[in-house]
Amino acid sequence: MIVYTPLWDTMKKRGISTYALINKYNISSSTINRLRHNMGVTTQLIDDLCVILDCKVEDIMKYENNEIK
C-alpha cells in the first residue's frame, strides 16, 4: 500500500501548510483529503508536490507491505 506519511513531515520541514497548498498552489481540498486517507492520486499531482516542496518522490510517499502472514 502506498502511504503519504512522509508528505506531512516534508511539508512541516519546508514550512508549507495544507492551507497554502489549497490557496496558493491550487491543490483542491478533496485532493488533500485523498492524501490524508492514503487514497490514489495522479502522478501529475506527485510531480507538482515535488516541485512545490523541492523534494524527491520518497519525501512524499512510501510503500508499506500490509500483507497478513
Features:
69 residues; mainly alpha; 434 Repressor (Amino-terminal Domain); two-stranded antiparallel ribbon; globular
Structural class: mainly alpha
Strands, count: 2
Unreliable parts: none
Question: Oligomer, anyone?
Answer: single chain
The rough form would be described as globular
Mean pLDDT, to the nearest integer, reads 95
Numbering strands along the chain, what is their spatial order in the largest sheet? 1-2
Q: How many helical stretches?
A: 4
Architecture overview:
The chain has 69 residues and is mainly alpha-helical. A two-stranded antiparallel ribbon has the order 1-2. Helices cover 51% and strands 6% of the residues. The chain has a single domain, classed as 434 Repressor (Amino-terminal Domain). The chain is built from four helices and two strands; from the N terminus they run E-H-H-H-H-E.
What does this entry show, briefly?
With 69 residues, the chain is mainly alpha-helical. It is built from four helices and two strands, in the order E-H-H-H-H-E.
Write the layout of secondary structure elements.
Elements: E1 2-3, H1 5-14, H2 18-23, H3 29-36, H4 43-53, E2 62-63
Antiparallel strand pairs: 1-2
